[in-house]
């Protein structure tokens, strides 16, 4: 197994130091070509210059192994670079190429003799590892973006609106799973308390299908609202959905269901007015 | 000597305001005290305010249902008011639906509901 002797590493470091500006310039050009001007040359040059410097430091103190403390700086720079690339919408290939391009740049000047070629191969292996690291960091960042967007979607898709004095509505859009039910329930109950409302209408016009699972979640929400002392109606049941519910044998129990939101609202408003009437009579 | 839950009288309504987490002995004492007070005062309604409770377990849940039933036996209607959203969600998850217990959003609505219930039969008569 060929071991990089200290003298080899030293020669490499000397070469890299001596021709620093040339290499960094070529590197930036190669990467810039692939990115087709979506990143300014100055910024790219600065980024790669820092990276080059860090690699050089790592080589000087840690040799060609590429592991351990010596390359910590390089790794954190690369992770930062991949994060930025992922956010700016570059492809994984373009991101990884930022590292691999250095191999292309260094190849002609390092492989002059057999000894140099051996050192170059080891350096290439090191750069491969670093390239993989960028790909990994890129994927991780993308996953973070996706999960945060899913969260935002959850927030966006469950509004609770006040329809009338004492009446709040929840227009549900999309499929109802247990995570969403939790969010809807929490929001609805909190709104009931905050707005001092006695009637809630859950509109399921935007729910594509109602199976036993979804029905179960709806029932839970209605029960919780009722337990807090509010009336809860389910509206927006399309004919197709009604047929499915009956065919599946889902029992909605004594939960009031109404076909259209407007009818549910009329009913709720009537009840609110009735209660207000009763209150006045109770005082007399 | 454990703490006792205070029972306040407002006209013909008894107000039970639970402000601390309940221990089992307090729950038993409350049941005794409340039934005694209903008989003593001839109250027509009981309002139990649980807005101070962060947690309602199955024991307290059953206590609410039992108290409601006992009060009804003695001629007083029970309203549980001020249940927090988190508590309602926990109870639903536990499968406790507090059957036979009337609820209202807050104390004010609870008192209104009692008045309405008292006025209701008279209107129809």
Automatic annotation (TrEMBL), chain B:
Q: What Pfam families does this protein map onto?
A: STAS (PF01740)
Q: Which residues form the STAS domain?
A: 3-114
Q: Which domain of life is it from?
A: Bacteria
Q: InterPro entries from the entry?
A: Bact_StressResp_Reg, STAS_dom, STAS_dom_sf
Q: Which Gene3D superfamilies does the protein's record reference?
A: STAS domain
PANTHER family (alphabetical): RSBT ANTAGONIST PROTEIN RSBS, RSBT ANTAGONIST PROTEIN RSBS-RELATED
Q: What is this protein called?
A: STAS domain-containing protein
Q: Which organism is it from?
A: Streptomyces tropicalis
